[in-house]
Target: Ankyrin repeat and sterile alpha motif domain-containing protein 1B
Amino acid sequence: MACCGARSLTPLAQYARSLRTQLDDGEKLPMLFPMYTVPLGTLLEMTKIEHHEALKARDVLVEFQRNMGNAAFVSHQWVDSSHPDPECKQMRVLQEALKEMMGNLKSIPVDLLSEGHNPNLKPLPTSKILSEPLFFWYDYFSCPQTECLSEHFPHSSKLPDAINSIPAYVDKCSFFFALVPVLENPSGTNLITPFTWNSRGWCRLERSCRELSQNKSWIQVKGPNDLQLISGAGASLRAGSGPVGEGAFTVPEDRSKLGPVLMKALKRKLLWLLKAQDLPGFRFLLNHQMFLSRGLDCNLFEPVPGFEQNHMDMDFSPLVMKFFHQNGFRSICERDSAGFSPLHYAALNGDPALIQDLLALQADPDQVTRKVHPDLGFESGASSLAISCAFKNNEAVRLLISARGRVASSAIIARPLIVAAGLNNAEAVQILLRARCLLESNSFDLTPLESAASGAALEVMEELLRHSMISSMDATHALYSAATCAGGAEFVYRLVEMRADVNAQTCDWCNRTALYRAIHTLLVLQHRFHKVTIFNTLMYHAKGATPLMLALLSGNDECAAALIAAGAKLNLRNSRGLTAADLIRRRSGPEFLLEACEGRVEACQRVSLLACGWVEMYF
Model:
């Protein structure tokens, strides 16, 4: 079969050209319910959170229009099932953060993982947020609340219209705040954290709508002076995150409402990418929709028209021809401008029958990517097997291995086992280990256990323990990774059971491989010469740091509470002369960490037990 085709435009390229003059007005996201907001000044004065109808009756709400200024969408978890924030604790965090922006905070730094994916990302100046009048959308006061509960008017609620308008609200907002402080509910039986925000189905929907808008960056608010800008690839693969349909819902029936809502945003983004002639971005999202729609009742979108089965090349199966038609490929050995082949996109798609047909056409299972795809974030040299592991397309994992795909990899970071471990894909880890994949480190000397720790992947850790003995040194190194990234309280306790040293001070961890040392040195020099970021600040202070210091430098408050509860000391000094207590006071909180500085660790113990769901044991 020839690897080269005629140079005429593919149906995908032809359709993309035709959209240049067709898209603007026809693809606006429908807003079925007005976008009610409150101005910045009103928000700052709030001492309690009142529902939509109460604020509307007092003429507090403002129907936002773009010519009025900028809007900000506030995504948050409900602290209680009947009220989002009964004690106004979450809102006070946002209010104090906004006051910091109006005073001392000049820019919002890029978060650790976003900077790791793209070191060229710039902090967001707070002057940009405050440059025009600012209005806030917040579900409890922007959407109908009481009328949907009325027995007398069961069909009069406008809440479904507001829900279906979420993509339009997000699209109209210049800024998106994820409000994620570590807080317990008023009854002291539950805890909300950044990890739980990532796991909630409604929060996943809002985040997905933001990432499917033209401006996909968003701001994570952990505390009044702990804000981070999240941008770039891989946000849906963060610890605790995943598809909307696999998120947690207090009311299970809510899941059935969200498929059409998500698809509106996805269709709009696909057509926008085509109009912009961003074909690699289009191919990524077209195939990524299989992952995004997992667990939802919705029909997949196939935007490129004109596919006729009776016009197919008989060399290809109908499934391959349809895939080529939608993705704009002519042969299995093509590469697009992002360095991806058809098999790489099929691995993202995950359809086993499609992958089987491509392999039957002699697609190379060991072929690796040639560039960093801007929408995936993996470095060049990633295999189809690693991509399948990342998105839990485990039937594809089995097929690629059965086609004699190599389970080992020369990729710097994204080796299949490292990827599967970091993204809590325990099934893929089991498949790889049965295929005799070695428990080896990557080029940064990151082990599969440390990768699991960085993603709070408890299921993977248990799978690794079944295959290998873990030393106390291995557990301690994993504790460093858990503290630095997203490891939560439960992971900390499990590592402590494995004899991890909560008071170990980093030494060899900072000097593990020549590549790691080179990057560490570069980041320290950047920090010294006043280009201060979260990543290089962490590296600057890493030598001699304890896991607790790493957690505090990364803003991982849940992990910090668990470490203190497990006996971490606050008075040990790193090579820069700083203690954990210094770092807590420098950040001004949160309260349970400030109490620990005064020798009162009960609040940290409570927070960590709540994070593990062990509140019954506490009482």
About this structure: The chain has 32 helices and eleven strands. The first helix runs from residue 11 to 18. Confidence is low (pLDDT under 50) at residues 148-155.
